[in-house]
Amino acid sequence: MARPDCPRCGGTGWKTVESPSGSIGSRVAVRCDCSLADRKDQVLSRARIPARYQHCDFESFEIDLQHEHPQAAAWNRSLEQAKLVVEGFARDYPAATSAGLLLIGPSGIGKTHLAVAALRQIVFRGLSGLFFDYGELLKQIQGSYNPVSQTTELAVLEPALEVELLVLDDLGSSKPSLWAQETVGHILNTRYNKSRITLVTTNYLDSPALPEPARLPSRQAVSREDSLTDRVGQRIRSRLYEMCRTVELVAPDYRKEVRQAGRIGLR
Question: Model-level pTM?
């Protein structure tokens, strides 16, 4: 839909430009930029990307932390490498893509940013993709349960099963339960069997052990009590090994550091 106050098209959605044929005085009608921007918004909404993440792209991903910590250079290399991997995944999808990605690391370092950047690039090419927050997806499925027929509304679950590219954000965030493990296991197994590609993010590491103090400042918010296996179960973690390439991001929590100390210079 065109902007009604657009000075270029006057709200019609079309503007005239010089003809590419080069004929003097020849002009043709083309879609106005305001209409194209609206179409992009519609594509992002159809992909279920939350409004707070719709701006995320590879160009705006921060890989140069202005931090005084002696490990800052190593953090920057980790972020740069993760960006290269995810950007390559998006660029080559679907022709040269046989596996998804599992992005692991502390909260606030840009895992969701990278996942959305890949999804944006892919859906803007006209391909099929959806974003689901792990906890919200489980709530929707649970909320659709009908105690009379004892069935779950297929309309809630089916998109996650069938879409060509699924971004499952914040895996393991909700309290683990047998029902949650069975549900996410069903989603991942179905997608694996149908050769669907899945891109997953999680704050939980493969080992619950604390990192060395030099790796991350201030003992930040990767779970120190649970591993990813603790949160989702051994069978699901094993399936993720088969489905996804694991990419670990090592860096401080952008949001925590900026909010509490202002020590990272974000550009």
Answer: 0.75
Report, in this order, helix, strand and coil percent for the chain, each rounded to 5.
Answer: 40, 15, 45
Q: Are strands 129-133 and 165-169 parallel, antiparallel or unpaired?
A: parallel
DSSP 51: G
CB 170 within 8 A of CB 202: yes
Q: Tell me the average pLDDT across 198-215.
A: 71
Q: Tokens representing 130? A: 């959806």
- Domains of the chain, each with CATH number or no CATH: 1-46 (no CATH), 55-260 (3.40.50.300)
Q: How far is CA 262 from CA 66, 67, 86, 107, 253, in A?
A: 10, 10, 28, 17, 12
CB-based burial label for 51 (10 Å; 0-12, 13-18, 19+): exposed
